[in-house]
Design goal:
The protein is α+β, with helices and mostly antiparallel strands. Helices cover 34% and strands 25% of the residues. It has an 8-stranded antiparallel sheet with strand order 13-12-9-10-11-14-21-19, with helices on both faces. A 5-stranded parallel sheet has the order 3-2-1-4-5. It binds ligand MV4.
Length: 457
């Protein structure tokens, strides 16, 4: 096992990794920017090193600074958390050349899955259904028209280097296709330095269902069940749950098997997620793969009882997965709600500032992952996530009740948060029946939330 791990991140995920290391007897090294001096990850780690000024590009994203800190602190490994350098293949290569273990997938895994055209092609060849569309990159408007003659409208034009909804355009006819093709391509060129785009049939009213994967270095790949992540706003997830309320046990079994097959097809290592789009008729298709531990991983931890971050570390140290597929048995109903420092009454404008006072919920079946304390300054430079409330119940109704109670117990003064939106969703009839899809939240917001006021408090 490693002696010392550097955590190349901040906020709640840095604390999450520190907790896993502590239980494993591994020493931790935090890194922080100037403005994060008073952050909890700095306090909680065994050692902390300043890596630069506030802008992430000058600190948390600056590879040379992270590697220097790792060398100075003499760590064996780096855990990247999510975001920042977590899916940077170049960073993984540099870690390798410095003899530092990157706790995550291989550079090749990241590269392959980062190119959505390669990902789609590789996965399709292994027998996993992908969304009907172009064979690879579409180079011209004429080629785009040719693809649509077979699939029909509507279609989505997606950036090969995109993912998470960046550089996407919908087209309903030849005119919007030609226009969307040009716009998606130039937008992708500007954003990613790679203007390559591909085309998929647009699946309307679909749900986003993803499967958690873990793979060790000994050829073992397991899946730990699904998370329904359809409740999103502008491609930012707000709420996730397991099990997916509309998946039959047969569909669940098939989706799990296909996710394992996709991971095996690319020789995947460590924690990852296979995203599927589930259409209203029950068909599902591979969408993309996330090559990191995700924000919503606690949903799976609460359902399965496994510690996925500890498992990541063990795998990176060369150990075998500590559980087999046949032992994995997700139990109960888990919901996560993300609390962001944003004002839902003001178009979700960021709401940084001092937390004058905060109280977190507790009790049976409730988990809170947060780096915030009374007196903490929510900084404007980074992600607005300030807490994740995760609840588990024996039934979905119990989980909803529990989340409802947890949201009322959550009290914060000084900043605005998305907590009131959680209450509105939990009270919505469609959510309660499990009948929602990826456009649900924007629709709910437009419809005025059935009269429930969004207060920001
Ligand atoms: C789609 C789709 C419908 N059809 N692809 C959005 C983010 C990126 N992961 C891909 N996304 C979508 N791809 C086809 N062929 C609908 C979406 C989509 C979406 C997906 C998951 C969660 C929320 C979403 C919100 C809008 C669109």
């Amino acid at each position: 096992m490693f002696n010392r791990i550097l955590i190349a991140n901040r906020g709640e995920i840095a604390l999450r990794v520190i907790r896993a290391c502590r239980e494993m007897g591994v020493k931790t090294v935090a890194v922080y920017s100037d403005v994060d001096e008073h952050s909890l990850h700095v306090q909680m780690a065994d050692e902390a090193i300043c890596i630069g000024p506030a802008p992430a590009t000058e600190s948390y994203l600056k590879i040379a600074n992270i590697i220097s800190a790792a060398e100075v602190a003499d760590v064996d490994a780096i855990h990247p958390g999510y975001g920042f350098l977590a899916e940077n293949a170049h960073f993984v290569q540099i870690c390798e050349s410095c003899n530092i273990t990157f706790i995550g997938p291989t550079a090749d895994n990241i590269q392959k899955m980062g190119d959505k055209v390669v990902a789609r092609e590789t996965v399709r060849k292994s027998g996993v259904p992908t969304i009907p569309g172009s064979d690879g990159v579409v180079k011209t408007k004429e080629e785009a028209l040719e693809v649509v003659r077979k699939s029909g409208y509507p279609v989505l034009i997606k950036a090969a280097a995109g993912g998470g909804g960046k550089g996407m355009r919908i087209a309903h006819n030849d005119v919007s296709l030609a226009q969307g093709f040009m716009m998606a391509s130039s937008e992708a060129e500007r954003a990613f330095g790679n203007g390559a785009v591909y085309i998929e049939k647009y699946i309307e009213n679909a749900r986003h269902v993803e499967i958690q994967i873990m793979a060790d270095h000994h050829g073992n790949v397991v899946q730990l069940g699904e998370r329904d992540c359809s409740i999103q706003r502008r491609h930012q997830k707000l709420m996730e749950e397991t099990p997916c309320p509309v998946l039959s046990s047969d569909q669940r079994r098939r989706m799990g098997k296909l996710a394992v097959r996709a991971a095996e097809a690319i020789g995947y290592r460590n924690a990852g997620t296979i995203e599927f789009l589930l259409d209203p008729t029950g068909h599902f298709y591979f969408m993309e793969m996330n090559t990191r531990i995700q924000v919503e991983h606690p949903v799976t931890e609460m359902a399965t009882g496994y510690d996925l971050v500890k498992e990541q570390i063990k795998i990176a140290a060369g150990q075998r997965l500590s559980f087999e597929q046949k032992e994995i048995n997700p139990q109960g109903y888990v919901i996560e709600f993300r609390i962001n420092a944003e004002d839902p009454a003001n178009n979700f404008a960021p709401s940084p500032g001092r937390v004058e006072w905060v109280h977190f919920p507790g009790g049976p079946g409730i988990r809170v992952d947060s780096h915030v304390y009374s007196g903490y300054d929510v900084l404007p430079f980074y992600d607005s996530l300030i807490a994740k409330l995760i609840v588990r119940g024996d039934t979905r109704e119990e989980a909803i009740q529990r989340m409802s109670g947890a949201l009322s117990e959550f009290m914060i003064e000084g900043i605005k948060t998305t907590a009131s939106l959680g209450r509105a969703i939990l009270n919505d009839a469609l959510f309660r029946r499990g009948r929602y899809h990826t456009a649900y939240l924007e629709q709910l917001l437009k419809d005025g939330l059935g009269g429930v006021a969004l207060t920001g408090t």
